[in-house]
Amino acid sequence: MGKSIVFLDIDGTILNTKGEIPKATKEAVRALRDNGHYVAIATGRAPFMFEEIRNELEIDSFVCYNGQYVVFEGEVIHRNPIERQHLLRLYDEASEKEHAMVFMGDTIMKASETDNGFIRDSLASLGFTYPEIDKDYFHHEPIYQALLFCEEEEEAAYSAHHEHVRFIRWHPLSCDVLPGDGSKKIGVMKLLKAANISVQAAYACGDGLNDLEMIAFAGTGIVMGNAVPELKELADIQTAHVDEDGLALGLKKAGLI
After folding, report:
1. Which segment of the chain is annotated as a signal peptide (predicted)?
2. 1 pLDDT exceeds 50?
3. pLDDT tens for each residue of 2-19
């Protein structure tokens, strides 16, 4: 393996606010590889939601679903689905409150209802269309992450009595639902073990609430200028905004390129 490993978040880190990969980012990833460093993605997205990005950047190893699904050089090495009983409890409450959900498996995602504005607007912000409806999907397929669609002030009521799952907000209208012990940190640990690279040689780049554990854990945490305040407090290196070539500048500050 390379001298070190660099974990790259996608939204707000690889992708700018227009949903594009800046030229400087493409050149930086190429330079990392040329300098002998190993490059991996660490994202909250599902694997089927960033295949084009992986292909464009020529990255074969990734942590996705916020650590619940890990691939090393094209091979799945870790799966951590949400227990069905916990999903059922959550879905029952969400249904009573008329809050929609999306269930995400290996290759597809399914919605609990049709034509929900929160689902439509949240997924559109990532460039994705409305999923097909199948409210029973989680009964017969492993679900690595779910999406709960509610406003921030409504989230606390769920967190208070669903201790077996975690809620991480990624949009004003939606939050990720993970297993209670799930985080990008766990996925990063699995990939480090597979790659035989120490945590001291791990660099993590991110901007969101779902990056907190990963940034705190990695040997060096590189935090984007557009990051949430909580993440900036953990930064070893703080760089510029993603729209100002922040990722490339951060990697330069770290001496990797």
Report:
1. none
2. no
3. 579 999 999 999 999 999
Cα(104)–Cα(123) distance, rounded to whole angstroms?
13
Domain range for 189 is 5-79+182-253
Q: Are residue 174 and residue 186 in the same domain, yes or no?
A: no
Per-residue tokens: 153? 């002030």
The DSSP result for 46-69, as a single string, is -GGGSHHHHHHHT---EEEGGGTE
> Pick from 5, 56, 52: which is nearest to 32 by CA?
5
- CB distance 182 to 73 below 8 Å: no
Region 12-39: what's the mean pLDDT? 97
pLDDT digits (tens, 9 = 90+) for 52-96: 999 999 999 999 999 999 999 999 999 999 999 999 999 999 999
Rounded to whole angstroms, the Cα distance separating 256 from 222 reads 12
- SS3 state of residue 217: helix
| H or E stretch covering 160 | helix 152-161
Which of the 8 DSSP states describes residue 226? T
Active-site amino acid positions: 9
Last residue of a domain, one of 149, 179, 209: 179
Q: What's the total number of domains in the chain?
A: 2
Residue 192, domain CATH: 3.40.50.1000
**Residue 203 shares a structural domain with residue 125:** no
Instruction: Return the CA Rg of the chain.
Output: 18
**What is the per-residue pLDDT across 155-208, written as a single tens digit (0 to 9) for each?**
999 999 899 999 999 999 999 999 998 999 999 999 999 999 999 999 999 999
Same-domain check for residues 94 and 214:
no
Query: Which residue, chain included where needed, has tokens 């945590």?
Result: 199
> Residue 2 has what pLDDT?
52
If asked whether residues 95 and 170 sit together in one domain, one would say yes
Of 179, 210, 234, the last residue of a domain is 179
